[in-house]
Protein 1
Amino acid sequence: MNRKVLSFLVSFLLLLPSFVWTLRDRHVWPWDQAWYAEVSLSLWMVLQRHPTQWISSLISALQTKPPAIAWLGEFFVPLGALLHHVEPALLISVLLPQWGTLFLLYLIGKELFPKSNILPLTGSLFAASMPLFVAMSHQYLVEPLQTFVVAYFYWIALVSFRQPRLCILGHLLIASFLGLLTKFSTPLYCLAPAAIVLWNLSKGFSLESLHPHKNDKKDLFLLASGLLLGILTIAWYQVNFFTMWMQSKRATVAVEALKYGHKDTFIHKFAWWLPTFFSNFSLPEVWWCLTILAAGGFVFFIWQTPTWKIHLPRSRESVLGVYAFGQIFLVLAVFSMIIPDESRYLMPLLPSIVIIFFLLIAKLKNVLINRLMAIIFICQFCLVHAQAQALIPANPRICSWLTPVHQDMKESKLVVQLVELTSNDETANRCNVCGVDLPWLNANSLSFYAAKQQLKTHVRAYYNPLGYGETDSEKAWQRLNENRPLYFISLDEKLIPKDVFNYVAAPILERVSSSKSWVRIPFQSNSGILLFRNTSTPGCAFYK
């Protein structure tokens, strides 16, 4: 069998358990996941019903965050009809870059060690068994696509010394603009491979070296694709850069970021990130096994090799390993200087880890150790997926994002009922407010379910929160009145969490309950949901 075909099949099989998870899971998507999904559905509906407005919708999508995940996800919305739910269809758009990452890691392994078949596949297996990799396969978030871009950069770096400059330039443009469209922080993870690519491009550079030859149609296509992607990227950033930049500051260094992390000295933060790094990329037992095997193999290598033959290697493989190690240290150092403690931000470091693994294992040149490591990764793969499929109890020592599959549809049915009551022909295009911020009951989740309903009914209402982690009840009340919502959704006061995201939920509920402008609507549920309607409906605002 052709080696590339084999890697295609292996990558597919490694992602098959995650695909099964997407078909089984029925939990309500929270916050960012729901927001990305809502925008994906909206873009698809614009493309279907108002195609002349599609390009402008692409450029205005998300606004505070680069839109690649929504741009890609919209084309998977039609699969929802086949799968009977749109969520697994959208998650396939996440599995696609996951598959691309595994395939690129195999190609990187073949570039480094063209005579080996086992080592490249072992590297892909190592990546696929990582807890954070599996966890992100279940979330509609940007990190899988961002990781693919980083792996793409490393592959370009490896082939840049022998490929035509026009071809490398095309790949570089595609990778660069795709990275910027995926997440603003992507360049941070790509500095090491990008430096190698630029160095190789600069050697002996001239305009003649970019001149296309007879059979360079593929290279010209790559270059044209990169330029087209660049035009779209520049257009989006031109419209949304200021909004996105201010949101990035709020989420990383401003006071608002304290909701998602803590501020501390560089040393203390680095001491927090280092164990977090290890626990998200492998089980503790696996790290110990890898350390013992690597140490034993290194001792055997030293014993077998005469001292005069041991020297500092200067091959491109070794240089790449040094760059990959430096890339990991750089990212952890930057994370130690900002506030958020979000472990999923580590995922784009995965290609750097696998490259270091490739080089360390190859240096040992021991077939037995290679096979033992493959067995260890298979065991880790099975354990991680067993936890994800709820076949074994959750291990609190590993990735917090690795949540077991949730098949109870109670919460999902409640959200559907709320949307059916508050998003219909009578309330089309009107605003509602969600007065609590829970993973399953929040403005983003309600908006996503309203967008799903719009696929069938062609009408929808819109949902706003009381504020972005608002702590001032007066400001929240003012925002509520400015929105002039038709419906207000909340929970029984005893069930409202006492956290920073629901600081004003109880005071606002009390003011709504005592206001003559609001009437409580009966809503049968055991979850304590409270629904109020604004009696001054003619004054309700329409969503713009």
Note: The two ends are 57 Å apart (CA to CA).
Protein 2
Amino acid sequence: MKLLMKKASVLLLIVFAFAQGTLAQPPNDFCSGAFATNADGTCYGPGLPQTTTVGAGDDWVGTLGCAGNNGEVWFSFVATTSQLDINISSGTIGGNLEFVLVQSLTPPCGGLTLGGGGGTACGGSPLTATFNGLQIGSTYYYTISSTGSDGTFTSCLTSTVPTPVAGQDCSAAAILCDASGFSQGTSAAGFGTQEVTTGNSCWGSGGERQSKWFKFTIGCSGTLEFNINPVISGDDYDWGLWDVTSDITCGSKGNTIACNWSGCKGSTGITTCANAIGEPGRVSSGAGCFGGPAAWNITTLNVTAGNTYALLVDNFSTSNSGFSLSFGGACGGGTAVIGPDANFTGSLDATCMAYTSTKTCPTANSTYLWTYGDGSTSTGMNGSHTYATTGNYTVTLTVTDALGCVSTYSETVNVGCILPIELTNFSAELMSDEFVKVDWTTISELNNDFFTLERSDNGITFESIATIDGAGNSTSELNYQFVDRKAINGSAYYRLKQTDYDGQSELSNVIGVNGMSSFGEISIQPNPIKGNGTLSFVSNAIDNVEVSIVDLTGKEVMRTHFSTKVGENNIMLETSAMIKGMYFLILTDSIESTTVRFIKE
């Protein structure tokens, strides 16, 4: 792990720089001033004030990599894929180059840990390296320094998607780390070692012809389905599947657990959807193409979490044309998770300080790393940790399977059970026919960025009408107010959306205020309704009125029209056939709409 340590004073650095006759420190000398880049192949080189180490200080504690205690400069980028390729070349900088990739446990620059399955690269110019296992959407930082004199350099980063490249033998099979489908441009022009026989598979004589091998592990147990679709529809592809858990080098594969050697041309694989096989000459069971087995295996295949499987795809037609492979079969079935799974559930104890977590799918033959956001880590399938201080922490599980594939999953834990916002008052008051005053009070705020006040004329569909800054962190009573000068004529509904600095948000309860209304007091009797109900209201005029009822999803379940009379109106509601739940009745005349909630039992 690497931790940042600030130098004593920026002023001292500047004085030192002038005393030595050097240039001022680069603007990205510290993590907090990291220069944002794009990992899309764009190169950043001499001419930019950020691409020089002249005047830079050394902010790492201790020594890492090859550059010792030489000065470094900082950059950042957002990962768009799981793999990163780098190319760093010297300008006037001397010695070997050092590249260090890190990720922050407590953004923006706290608790920095090495990222990308290693995090460092050292060597002469140009320095190239590949880092895997990046979390898509996460911000990463990297530093550049050297073992020699300070100077300029060029930095080029490219996010790439690892492409499976199959070998001709099982021992050199391409590794599939997830269920993403892919296209294989060509089948191999031949095979390496002949590994398929009539004795260990359903294949007839002749064995492999143009082979492509793949291996993958199962993250969560379930059923396996896949589809092999040749580029040329007239190609005949065969396949075999082995459980190689006991020897992932394929030294002793044993017999296939599923295979197909049908002689049928076109798509093949495993599917439980027999009706999907619609190509001419295809059958779902019994005799198939050329009097042999069917093109598709339709027997359910169960696979086990933690086990490793090897799949051979072979072009019997020897056309050297490729294929696409997708998991899910002809109808998108299959419940197993391909590749490592890191999902977990966790909870705090009664003190809200001790946290325990359980991996969702128990998985053997994998390694586990828990990071708890406060610098602590643990290993094992499940995790537990007691925190020393309260606050919001990000807990992350990293799972590495037997093939080296990596998966991560994170969740935020509110240690100490501190409420982000304690709201003691939220009210709305009609000040005139046009103005509504909305007030709210908090007695504590944690990482509160801002409030969004939302308004609705029916209590269902809301629009934003104001944004008010929060206090960030506070333990004092704070009062907020907003005057709505464009209040809705009739009933108006308000709610608050509170947003944290990390973008997470929560909604308050809904409050309402009645303005000038043509309906007077409105009620539904009885409420809750068991059979049919009655809508009662006092009308100020004769008018045509529409009544509609919608459920919680906004779906309309009833609509009717009638004419009002001046005075009391009573309308029977045909609700006996409606299912149980909460509903909204919307009453609309030529002037306004108003909404009443009711429950159907």
Note: The CA atoms of residues 43 and 177 lie 30 Å apart.
Protein 3
Amino acid sequence: MILKNALAQLRSDADFAWDDWITSEADERALLAGYRPDIGRAEHVRRFALEHTRHSKGQFAGRPFTLFDWEWGRVVRPLFGWIDEYGFRRFKFAYISMAKKNGKSCMLSLIGNYGLVADQEPGAEIYSVAADREQAGIIYNESANMVEASPALSAILTLVRSQKRIVHKKSKSFYKALSADVPTKEGLNAHYILFDELHAQQTRNLFDTLRYAGRMRRQPLFLMITTAGYDKHSICYEQYARAKRILDNTDEDHSFFAYIAEAPEGADVLDETAWLAANPSFTELFNYETFAADAREAKQSATMENRFRRYCLNQWTEQDVRWLQMDCWDDCAGQVDPSELIGCRCFGGLDLATRRDIAAFVLYFPDNDHAVLPFFWIPGENARKRQDHDRVPYIDWISRGLIAATPGNAIDYNAIHERVAELCGLYDVQAVNIDPWNAEATTQYLQGQGIEVAPFGQGYSSMSKPAKCLETMVLRRELRHDGNLVLRWMAANATVVEDGKENIMPSKKKSTEKIDGIVALIMAIGGAMATDGDGVSIYETQGLDVI
């Protein structure tokens, strides 16, 4: 490590094992800044767990809470053992993330009970926080059960289960469970905030309200513990990105602790090393055969794969439930030369979206190996602002010609009209299929240019068959696109909803990011299905079966 020589003298005087405490450049810089490890402070937490806490359920029910090696070495020891020159904890904020069922709730409950009675904080206020009442009750119930299972704790603590409170009368301290649906949380003087499953927070309001609730305390702890999510605009992803910067030594903050157990990006769901990377308690808590069976199921299903990656591999995904298999989508990428398609029969799908959104026009060539040509527009004036807000590389895509930037801060529909008309002159566009909502001006312009325009409903009856056809072509690697990054991003974002008759349709509401290009492609395929030469379904002429 870069500072090891400079720290040699400090190390020779310190009564600690170097490799146990100095695990990153951030730790080296913290040591130089005056922070130091105190093994006694960390051992105090471990002894509290072992001597005064009992597990309440499962295979360890009734046993003393013995920390797993990773809980001790990677979380408890550094989190509670590093102190400043005044003897207060170094870390004020902590982000801890791993796959589900690794004991997060038990560890959070242990820490909550420790903060209530053993952290030497008079009038301590400990709050466990979650997205809803049910989730908030999980941590509280585990904490309360630990108290009931411990003679020492039950003798000094009072449980008020109806209020989800635990009270330590001697120190005038209490533990209380909160949830996002409880209206008032102002004025809290928190010693600990224990934020459970941060990824489930729909807004950042609760986080921001509690962010500074401990600023009057000597050594407050704001602890976030969570599994990966899918909304990359969320407060959870913001904190995840911050934690990654801390771990990568690209951001310096002595007060922020980070521990993330996750499978490497791009890891195969069947890779056993990825299982271990995301599940530090694997050998102690998991059944190998059951886990392997879940992985095999995920390998065969896009829906199950997304859930497996989030819950079992702790990987952030593009959406909650993935629709299209992205490895199959990527296999469809190849050379698509627009000049070779000039004059060829095709069908267009036009999704105008809103004036401040992305507009998409996609041409589908059923007679040319199901080739696809996508075109996109975005307001040029706010592209930089949108990139910074959405964390999407709009500027790069514009510079590479993947998106056209129209003048102003709203999409110039006239520019789209002219470009669509130009494309219809180059290619033999049979019809432009368009969402009829708010499309009167576009329809009139294109029809005035002699272009066939067909209204295309956005419900199940219109969208289901072409959506299933698209899915079939992707799974069979029969679609042909040029690997367009914008269209790929939208394909990865796409989520579908299903009615009671197994009809599907893409959902812009359920998809956390833009899918306009996929909607346009579905409309183009729908046009081809409806208007094939002799009125014969495209399923018959192209040999495709609805899955």
Note: The chain has a mean pLDDT of 88.
Protein 4
Amino acid sequence: MSNRAPEIHLLRDILMLVLLGGLVVIPSMATRELWSPDEPRYVEVAREMIARSDYLVPHLNGEAYAEKPPLFFWLAAAFYRCGCGYNAGRVVAGLAAIGTVLLVYFFARRHWPSPAPLLAGLAMLMSLLFLSHARLGVLDPLFAFLTTAAILAGHRALHSQRGSGAAAGWWLAFYGTVGLAVLTKGHVGLFVPGVVVLAYALLNRRQVWGGGHWHAFGAVLLLVIVGAWLVPAGIVGGKSYLYNLTVRQLVGRVIPSAGGHRLQIHPQPFYHYALQYLWFAFPWTLLFPLAATEAAVAWRQRHNEAALFALFWFIAVCVLFSIPAGKRAGYLLPLAPAMGLLMGHYLGVGTVEGWRFPRIHRHLLLATFFLAALVLLILTATAFTSVWTPDVVVRFVPQYAPLVAEVRGEMGMLMRLFGIVAALTLAVVAIAGAWVLLRTRRALLSLICLAAVLFGVSLYADIFVLAPISRARSERRLCEAAALDLAEADALYTLDPSLAGVYNLYTRRISIPVIGNHLAAALEEPRRVVVIGSEDNFRRFAPAALERYRVVARLQIRPEAKVVLANWNRDTPGP
């Protein structure tokens, strides 16, 4: 029986992490519309691969798509063909996110005793950085999975016996997964695992095996993996496609002005992510400095190199992602595994051996509960004012008045009431966790309460927050409202270049030309023409068009109104 106990615990831990991971990623597939523009755009690239029978050069809106390599789109296309439809990208991202949690668990299990491995997986699952991005059908979760696999393979290779077959295998695994990361997100797939493993190897150069000639074999493997796609894609796509995919993406992401207008997205100063620490580290915002300190002390006193490795992983990724000019919160997802490992190590050591700074730990943990309860109470108050007294919201943000009205229309009276009760319940659980900590000082039980609150918030957000907002701001509703006219149209145009590919997904068209100054001429064509765009763009390019031609559908999407305009009347055979 004792021989089977570790296996039983292993299966229990894996099952728990997979179920909780599913609780994070699955509900959004059933409740929430695709979040424009990235989610529908990436699914559309996969759909166009299938429609064109062209899996070599990704296309969007009928044109070669040089913004990203194809691995994510290949996987999304496979799930799309299996019947996942619009959720194809989310399935890829969700599986990758859960896989990343399991990688963190197995690494911690190899280096630290129970309960640190399970706590490491749970700490990663509970981080707001993971909760907010693992459910999105974008490239970041898959990229985080591949970079995590590469980093852990590199760590294993460094600590393998010099010259052994296992060491060679791990170095090849490192370079192979780096190649797949490059096929997912380009150059950064090489930099993230390369910088982490190189920095750690230099610091521990006397204790690790550098790899010797296996780096040459690994580099060949990486070049074969990337080149097997890049060379034929460059030949078929042409010099312009190859230049945009490689040189322009690399230079333009670091220096936006060098990459042209399309790459000047989300420019932020170097210290931007440091200012976002309070957000992406939640709920570990207050405790994480103690976890980092514990890792450093554990290395100096007990030579715990795994804790040091996690700390260097976190620091290296923070610095690396602070260098490029373009910054988004989702880019930081490769930090989540390192954060989970550091918190798992800290909580595991504290649970078994006691806390290094018990008074500070207790105060910070207590503050964490009160902070979580405060956030939930603020969300409840916001939901109450938005749903029951929308005039209060409109008074402060009048540009969102139409959107608030749409969201209220999406939620029935019972749903509004149930949502407020659910948020209040979660706040009570958070306060109960604080009470348990104050009265009994059972930190593990209070952490269970915190986990219940965070996973409850994740489910609450999917049902009561993101679902109605996503339906109110989805272009899918607009296309469904105009479905009959879209089916009868001889030509379809759009005025919104930023939504190229989004309308394609919902209308099943390969190419929707983007027009601007040619709007008036397009509407005067001797065939049935439909134009989709924002109301502001219609008034900008053809002020009289909205009064002269038939408005098929008009919906408030985001703060602006979207319009579908047709140049023929339904009671006449032509325009």
Note: The chain has a mean pLDDT of 84.
